[in-house]
Amino acid sequence: MVLIPAGRFLMGSEEFYPEEGPVHEASVAAFEIDRAPVTNRDFALFVEATGYVTVAEKPLDPADFSGAELPDLRAGSLVFVPTAGPVNLADWRQWWAWRPGAFWREPLGEGSSVEDKLDHPVVQVAYADTLAYGDWAGVRLPTETEWEFAGRGGLEGARFAWGDEPQHPDQLKANSWQGRFPYLNTGANGWVGTSPVGSFDSNGYGLVDVTGNTWEWTSSKYNARHEAPTCSCGPVDDHARSADQNQRALKGGSHLCAPEYCLRYRPAARSAQSEDSSTTHIGFRCARSLG
Fold first, then answer.
1. Domains and CATH numbers, the chain
2. Which of 53, 132, 169, 193 is 20 to 30 A from 84, alpha carbon to alpha carbon?
3. Given phi > 0 = left and psi -120 to 50 = alpha, else beta, which region is 259?
């Protein structure tokens, strides 16, 4: 873990999406946070030690769905599937599909594997799964404020984790979508989908993958202080297992973020996610209080 000093900072942004505002002064006590997201290797050790069964591995109860159309009630999760060509970007259902058998060890569905991706961030983890891992490891999720303070790496008010200038295709700073979303992705430094943690430069605190690669769970409940987000890389309420599920704030953006659709690989970016949801672009990193 990396020690993050106590401090005050301007949290949020008013440049991009309404849910990121208003900019306000926030403070954090000193804490520790993982240098990188939890990997498949890390999560495998946890499962082997405890026999834990993730949310995505549990059969669905039809009573928990409010009219959502699902192919069947087998255990599974949501998987990103590129489209054949340009589509209406207002309808995320065109590139997200329910895959029976999808879970953290087979994230793309039955027959897929993470054996060659042990150093990639674990995905297909719901909020309860992150809490169970934290209980086992003696750590916790960071709050949204802690996450943003750490993610900024000491750069007050900067747009990105590396400064104000956007990424250049020849010198990428984060794993984000390269090409035309959601049908053409040429890969970020060769990576289509997740990349091994630490494949891109660290921020000012030495943290890697704070933006891009995978969205990351925080312990904070999501509160849209302005109007609803204008776009979302991931699925929303109608695929939640319960209509009244709480939502938590995700931070950091993912490999699916594309400037023309979802410019959210920034420290101020945030997204709502129902606690019982898991997808191929959401992971987590852990924190620890001092004293």
1. 1-291 (3.90.1580.10)
2. 169
3. alpha
| Structural tokens at position 128 | 């309860």
Task: Check if the beta carbon of residue 70 is closer than 8 Å to that of residue 64.
Answer: no
Q: What is the pLDDT of residues 183-228, one digit of tens each?
A: 999 999 999 999 999 999 999 999 999 999 999 999 999 987 733 3
State the helix-helix crossing angle for 127-137 and 40-50, rounded to 10 degrees.
Answer: 70
The rounded distance, in Å, linking the Cα atoms of 98 and 263 is: 25
Which is it for the CA torsion 108, 113, 124, 262, positive or negative?
Answer: negative
- Arithmetic mean of pLDDT, 105-129: 98
Residue burial 148-183, b: 16+ Cβ < 10 Å; e: rest: bbbbbbebeebbbbbeeeebeeeebbbbbbbeebbe
For residue 96, give the nearest of 112, 111, 109 by alpha carbon: 109
* Three-class SS of 47-63: HHHHCCCCHHHCCCCHH
Residue 122 backbone class (left: φ over 0; alpha: ψ -120 to 50; beta: rest): beta
Residue closest to 126 by CA, chosen among 62, 219, 56, 37: 56
61 confidence band (pLDDT: 50, 70, 90): confident
Structure pTM? 0.91
Tokens describing residue 245: 């599920």
The structure tokens listed for 73 are 């009630």
Q: Strand pairing partners for 27?
A: 8
Among 97, 116, 118, smallest CA distance to 108 is for 97
Q: Are 234 and 281 in contact (CB under 8 A)?
A: yes
